[in-house]
Design brief:
alpha+beta; three-stranded mixed sheet; two-stranded antiparallel sheet; 99 residues
């Protein structure tokens, strides 16, 4: 399972950065960087691992989010190891699109 850091900006956009990658992604990176493999045919980068995307969900029949946005009941499953709120920097999306 890959792990991510989530950054929320003042504009309400959210960006994820890779914190630590999983073995599936590590093997895929080794495979596409192997010169012998690349010489045979062009290799697509396809880790085929659903945990290589950031996710968060709540498990439990009576789970709900409280006023502070935290889970009040149930179990939160996520691969986001840290959440950061950045009120000073502009997000990469706004910079790219001139917003």
């Amino acid at each position: 399972m890959c792990l991510f850091v989530e950054t929320q900006y003042q504009c309400k956009h959210t960006c994820f950065e890779l914190y630590l990658f999983c073995r599936e992604l590590f093997h895929e990176l080794n495979r596409i960087n192997d010169p012998d493999q690349r010489a045979i045919y062009p290799l697509p980068f396809n880790p085929c691992c659903t945990s290589c995307e950031p996710y968060s969900f709540v498990v439990g029949s009576n789970a709900h989010l409280g006023p502070d946005g935290r889970c009040q009941a149930g179990i939160v499953r996520t691969n986001v190891v840290q959440r950061v709120v950045d009120l000073l920097e502009r997000c990469p999306y706004c910079d790219e699109h001139g917003l």
